[in-house]
Amino acid sequence: MDWDDLRIFLAVSRAESLSGAGRRLGMDASTVGRRIARLEQAVGAVLFAKTPQGYALTAEGGRLIVPAEAAEKAALTVAEAARRDEGIGGQLRIGAPDGCANYLLPQVARRLAEAHPKLEIQIVSLPRVVNLSKREADMAIAVSPPDTGRLTVQRLSDYHLHLAAHRDYLAARPPIGDLADLKAHRMIGYIPDMIFDRELDYLSETGVETAAISSNSVSVQMQAIRAGAGIGIVHDFAIPFVDGLRVLLPDRIALRRSFWLLRHADDRDSRRLSVLADALAQGVRAEIIRLESQVFAAADRFA
């Protein structure tokens, strides 16, 4: 059985489509389909059932997953050993919630790229938890540790959030001296039914039940606040990126959350990924400290 056919089989099982697998592999969908047909002929079984939702594994296909992943791990180990003397290179795909992806990872990626010039860094920002079992990424940053899955979980860092608004909005609105005063203001937050993790339910901390403007994206919320559209709870590490932002009621609203680094359990023996995971963790921690320290060092950040 050809390893390259198994590689294509795994890509289809994870993408659940020929076109999705083709995009990951750099092949056209028809070539992927022919290779799957060849593999099915070699094993003497149908491996996928075509459904309206995509390509689903049959029972025979499901039984092939474990040996295929074992072959994948062996191939990666051989490739890593061959590259060891050449320095760390290849592709590194990092999944992250968009607040982290927008305000932290670009700076961290710059330092990783400078330290490892042969590395190709990809940042995947999704409004949900990245699925490592389907190999959507090599590692992922999450806002809470998962309850299930064959994963290794490492606590990265705490981070903080405060209520904030732009000075232009505050200049035209009634003063805010207490949480009760927020009822006279427009609030900005998450779309309730699109909150994919309970740790993101920030608005409930204010006592305000609904947001006048909402988005499933932290970055869109921040841009609305920047435009003077209302008040929201923002990451402290994002505040230095927006001129004119003011922190409100810091003694009443001061949230603390954590980032977690997730890796597939099969990758724990990969020296390459372990080195990169350590560098990523150190970089994220340092960047949070650097950016958060700027907020409370600037007296004019407080309304």
UniProtKB/TrEMBL annotation:
UniProt cross-references to Gene3D superfamilies, sorted A to Z: 3.40.190.290, Winged helix-like DNA-binding domain superfamily/Winged helix DNA-binding domain
> Which keywords appear in this protein's UniProt record, sorted alphabetically?
DNA-binding, Transcription, Transcription regulation
Flavoprotein: present as a keyword of the record?
Answer: no
Which residue intervals define the domain HTH lysR-type in the entry? Answer: 1-58
| Signal peptide coordinates | none
Nucleotide-binding as UniProt keyword? no
PANTHER family recorded: TRANSCRIPTIONAL REGULATOR (PTHR30579), TRANSCRIPTIONAL REGULATORY PROTEIN (PTHR30579:SF3)
What protein family is recorded? Belongs to the LysR transcriptional regulatory family.
Task: Give the protein's recorded name.
Answer: LysR family transcriptional regulator
Q: Which organism is it from?
A: Paracoccus stylophorae
